[in-house]
């Protein structure tokens, strides 16, 4: 049988040629994508890009400072008090922004980086590392949240016990001073002191009773009883004071925001394309303002001292501008498409996504939307849900440009 009578060898050769052509095409496409694509050089202008980076540093710095400062400066003013309706609505909108940042921006960017054709298929494209790492980060945040809350709660209880011991010693000293004068006639002032001491014990007993049953309904009596009970020291030692929770929340939230702010700043700083930087300036300024507002609200509710609050706010505000400056300095030799850069960026974005999603859902949205004060106020509920959805939708829409 001749070569032409048997078509199998010819088909085999054609198949091998087609296979090699496909591999050659994929390698070329991969090289183009790893090099940034053909469109990366179309709008390259180093001088114009540097001007836009300087504008971005100033604009994002102002937006971050304004966002984080408004809750801190306004906490002593009536309209922006942390228990006011305006603050609750603004915080709900900021929570929506942070939730969308985690799901729409960070998780997507992590997925794009860790499945890039510049990375080897094994293991990066064989396993969904971005979602897995985000899940691990969320669970790790839960552990840190729990341990931190327990630590600060124990510290608070020890301080409270010290105050109680001091007060008990003072009362005992007063009682001993009164009993040291047995022959003195009872005066109106003595009766008043004795009645005051008895009244203190009676009030403590009443407080323990009211605190156990003051969460049943939204009627006026229970609300008044609950409000009155919170004006005094808690007898229930197992209850974690709200400001202790906000101490932990504010610190973990800052960690999540700062970690992805570094990546955002570096990404903008290394870009040499004005076409890429220009829309990012407005998008990141909006993003920075509302993240700052959410963080500033948590810092305000945590009741930090002025120095500690100012330090946390300043650290947040300067992170992204410093990242832009560092990226601009490294733009000449930094290759954002190198395997090492892609892996680091993908891992940090995944961790940030997990932290931000956990914080937004658990410590911002659930803590406020499932609270008793909101469940008893239908108008505040409706307005808060509207603000939450608008914040999430607005930040999601920015994914078109950023």
Automatic annotation (TrEMBL):
Disordered: annotated segments: 208-241
Keyword Nucleus assigned: no
GO cellular component: plasma membrane
Membrane topology: Multi-pass membrane protein
One function term, GO molecular function aspect: zinc ion transmembrane transporter activity
Keyword Transmembrane found: yes
Subcellular location(s) of the protein: Membrane
InterPro entries: ZIP (IPR003689), Zn/Fe_permease_fun/pln (IPR004698)
Main location: membrane
Name of this chain's protein: Zinc transporter 10-like
């Amino acid at each position: 049988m001749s070569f032409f009578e048997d078509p199998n060898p010819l088909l085999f050769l054609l198949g091998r040629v087609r296979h090699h052509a496909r591999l050659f095409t994929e390698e070329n496409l991969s090289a183009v994508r790893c090099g940034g694509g053909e469109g990366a050089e179309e709008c390259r202008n180093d001088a114009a890009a540097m001007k836009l980076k300087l504008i971005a540093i100033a604009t994002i710095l102002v937006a971050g400072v304004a966002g984080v400062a408004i809750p801190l400066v306004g906490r002593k003013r009536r309209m922006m008090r942390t228990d006011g309706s305006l603050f609750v609505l603004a915080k709900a909108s900021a929570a929506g922004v942070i939730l969308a940042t985690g799901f729409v921006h960070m998780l997507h960017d992590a997925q794009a980086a860790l499945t890039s054709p510049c990375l080897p298929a094994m293991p990066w494209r064989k396993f969904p590392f971005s979602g897995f790492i985000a899940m691990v980060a969320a669970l790790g945040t839960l552990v840190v949240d729990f341990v931190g809350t327990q630590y600060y709660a124990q510290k608070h209880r020890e301080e409270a016990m010290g105050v109680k011991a001091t007060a008990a010693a003072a009362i005992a000293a007063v009682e001993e001073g009164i009993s040291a004068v047995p022959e003195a006639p009872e005066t109106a002032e003595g009766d008043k002191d004795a009645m005051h001491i008895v009244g203190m014990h009676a009030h403590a007993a009443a407080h323990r009773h009211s605190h156990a049953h003051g969460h049943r309904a939204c009627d006026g009596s229970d609300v008044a009883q609950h409000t009155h009970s919170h004006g005094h020291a808690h007898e229930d030692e197992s209850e974690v004071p709200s400001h202790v929770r906000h101490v932990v929340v504010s610190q973990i939230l800052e960690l999540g925001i700062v970690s992805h702010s570094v990546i955002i700043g570096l990404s903008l700083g290394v870009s040499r394309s004005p076409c890429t930087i220009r829309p990012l300036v407005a998008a990141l300024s909006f993003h920075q303002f509302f993240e700052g507002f959410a963080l500033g609200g948590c810092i305000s509710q945590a009741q930090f001292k002025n120095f500690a609050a100012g330090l946390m706010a300043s650290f947040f505000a300067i992170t992204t501008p410093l990242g832009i400056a560092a990226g601009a300095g490294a733009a000449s030799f930094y290759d954002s498409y190198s395997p090492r850069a892609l892996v680091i960026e993908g891992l940090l974005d995944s961790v940030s996504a997990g932290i931000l999603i956990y914080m937004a859902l658990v410590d911002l949205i659930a803590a406020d939307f499932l609270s008793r004060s909101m469940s008893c106020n239908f108008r505040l509920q409706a307005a808060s849900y509207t603000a939450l959805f608008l914040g999430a939708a607005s930040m999601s829409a920015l994914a078109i440009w950023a």
